[in-house]
Specification:
The protein is an alpha+beta fold. Helices cover 56% and strands 8% of the residues. The strands form three sheets. The protein has a four-stranded antiparallel sheet, with helices on one face.
């Protein structure tokens, strides 16, 4: 935990070309690597052009993907690292497809027929009179017969077509009997209307029970056929090592989509980029554990490189990084104010939302949503601070008659609350100015800050302290003189603009500090709303059920409505009254390489 953000470290990895894909997937799985090519053009050799091979693989995947197993890496069948290897693997998939095609056709036919027979069985069971359906089955040997499940209104039917519509358990149906030519016309009319054909076997008995027996026997036979087909597919899967081949192509597709053009020779590949693994232990251990040949070292980064910034905060501070990320990423040499925000944001929120019960309710909501909504983790410290200030203000569940305040009731001393908020504002703005000084020191520009900003900070501190005693005005005057004399001595030609800017900035600081009175105003508004809720509850019926119902509903409304408003106000104060003093946030965050599908980062 530090105010100074860490920068990513430049790394270079030399590996043999055959291990390139696996090496990159291992690095990606660490979640700590961003690739960036940096080499002279004559040393750069692109990865092989796998586009045509992957395109053909995509066609096979569209046709056979639903029947393929989950890809699984097998060391005996490593991912293809050359065009020839990829084409050999693709040839294996083609052979599998030729062998599997008739089996899949039989499986699809059995599955479709089984589904239709089950639907027909349901119709026979649910129909008031199953005789028309069974009669239709008897006639299919001489005439054309159709049974359709409808999803849209019927079009005009061909003349001479005997048809009846009826309701079934899955919707509306039409049963039709006509010549083969008329049935073909009906097929053509219903196809655009997404009607579903229900297969109607011929020669079913007119006795519903006997017909059901026939259907069950046929369904059992189809189940046996389908199981036989799946057994053949399992044998083909094992024979052609399908899961391993698919894993290889998945890694190959990831490699082409995510990896830039890398320097390579006939035997070696050179991988360069950035890592958040400052000591190199994680990358070295991951490559060694995978048994990959490699040479890993960490030279100075290229001079023209845009160095990424890495947040180095412990897990309990991670939720507060949200405030910083709202405006960007601190660049190298700028403070990462996350640790300061971890104290500042809950303090401001609690001051504006002081109530013990309501704060604990927010705390419980933050704990309950800890995993599902990481952003709501901010409610945990915010709720605790709200409960703490509830104790300070003597407020419990909107009532001020249950807890004795550590300090005062806001509505009884509003000026004191407003004065406290202005003091808090001075501390917030002053902290931002000090972080600005720290930024200049890190950039070896401390002298510049002393000349052009030091007097300004002294004047501001003197004005704030003068609220306690007029003797501090001497420091304010000294700071103003410093802000004028410093630029005059440093650069007389530009002194006029610097002095004008200093005076304008000082006035802005004073105005911004006074504007922090809104924090106290929110605290007073919260106390006033709480008093109104209690008044409504008392008017609803003393201390009976009406009182408690109104009090509970009122507290929930305060938590939801004012919680959102105070949360927005806290964010605004942090961003536009604190960050604006020192943070440019134009740095570049590290963007770790996403691991291949099925391989989670760790």
């Amino acid at each position: 935990m530090t105010l100074k953000p860490a920068t990513a470290r430049w790394f270079e990895l030399l590996t043999d070309r055959d291990s390139l894909g696996v090496s990159l997937s291992v690095l990606a799985a660490t979640g700590k690597v961003e690739l960036e090519t940096h080499s002279s053009p004559e040393r750069r050799v692109a990865l092989p052009d796998y586009a045509a091979t992957l395109a053909e693989f995509g066609e096979l995947a569209r046709r056979y993907g639903p029947y393929w197993p989950e890809p699984k890496i097998d060391p005996a069948f490593p991912p293809p690292e050359s065009i020839a290897g990829a084409e050999d693997a693709l040839a294996e998939l083609r052979t599998w497809a030729v062998m599997a095609e008739p089996v899949l056709t039989a499986l699809q036919r059995a599955t479709t027929e089984r589904s239709s027979l089950l639907e027909l069985s349901e119709l026979i069971d649910s129909s008031v009179d199953a005789a028309p359906l069974l009669e239709l089955s008897q006639r299919t040997r001489l005439l054309g017969a159709r049974l359709y499940a409808l999803t849209e209104p019927l079009p005009p039917l061909p003349p001479g077509l005997l048809a009846v519509t009826f309701a079934g358990p899955r919707g509306e149906y039409i049963a039709a009997l006509a010549s083969s030519e008329d049935c073909t016309t009906l097929d053509r009319e219903l196809a655009p209307r997404h009607a579903r054909l229900v297969l109607l076997p011929s020669g079913l008995s007119l006795d519903p029970q006997m017909a059901q027996t026939t259907l069950r026997e046929r369904i059992a036979k189809l189940d046996t056929d389908a199981a036989h087909c799946r057994g053949i597919l399992d044998e083909l899967e094992a024979r052609y090592h399908l899961a391993a081949r698919l894993a290889g192509f998945r890694l190959l597709a990831w490699l082409v989509a995510n990896v830039p053009r890398l320097p390579a020779t006939e035997h070696f590949a050179w991988v360069t980029g950035w890592t958040s693994d400052r000591h190199g232990a994680v990358l070295e251990e991951a490559l060694a554990r995978a048994g990959l040949p490699h040479l890993l070292h960490y030279p100075d980064p290229p001079q023209d490189a845009d160095v990424p910034v890495v947040y180095a905060n412990p897990s309990w501070l991670k939720p507060f990084e949200l405030f910083v990320r709202l405006i960007g990423t601190p660049r190298a040499g700028e403070p990462d104010p996350t640790v300061v925000v971890a104290a500042l944001a809950p303090l401001l929120f609690g001051l504006m939302f002081g109530d013990i019960a309501q704060g604990l309710l927010l705390f419980a909501a933050g704990v309950a949503s800890w995993r599902k909504a990481p952003a709501l983790r901010l409610l945990v410290p915010g709720g605790l601070c709200a409960a703490l200030f509830g104790w300070v203000f003597g407020s419990l569940a909107a009532r001020e008659d249950l807890v004795y305040p550590l300090w005062l009731h806001p509505l009884q001393a509003p000026l004191s609350v407003l004065a406290l908020s202005i003091v808090v504002g001075g501390i917030v703005i002053g902290g931002g100015l000090l972080l600005d000084a720290l930024t200049h020191v890190w950039r070896s520009a401390g002298a510049h800050w002393l000349i052009y900003r030091g007097g300004l900070v002294l004047a501001y501190a003197g004005l704030l302290a003068s609220l306690l005693s007029s003797r501090w005005l001497v420091f304010a005057a000294s700071g103003i003189a410093w802000a004028i004399v410093g630029p005059l001595l440093s650069n007389p030609r530009a002194a006029g603009g610097a002095i004008g800017e200093a005076i304008e900035t000082l006035m802005q600081l004073v105005v911004n500090t006074i504007s922090f009175a809104r924090v106290g105003a929110f605290a007073l508004a919260h106390a006033g709303l709480s008093a109104a809720i209690v008044g409504i509850a008392e008017a609803a019926g003393g201390h009976g059920p009406g009182f408690w119902t109104a009090l509970v509903i009122g507290n929930l409304l305060i938590v939801v409505i004012e919680g959102v408003v105070v949360g927005i106000q806290t964010t605004r104060l942090v961003l536009f009254e604190f960050f604006i003093r020192f943070l440019h946030a134009d740095g570049r965050p590290l963007r770790p390489l996403a691991p291949p599908p099925g391989m989670a980062a760790h």
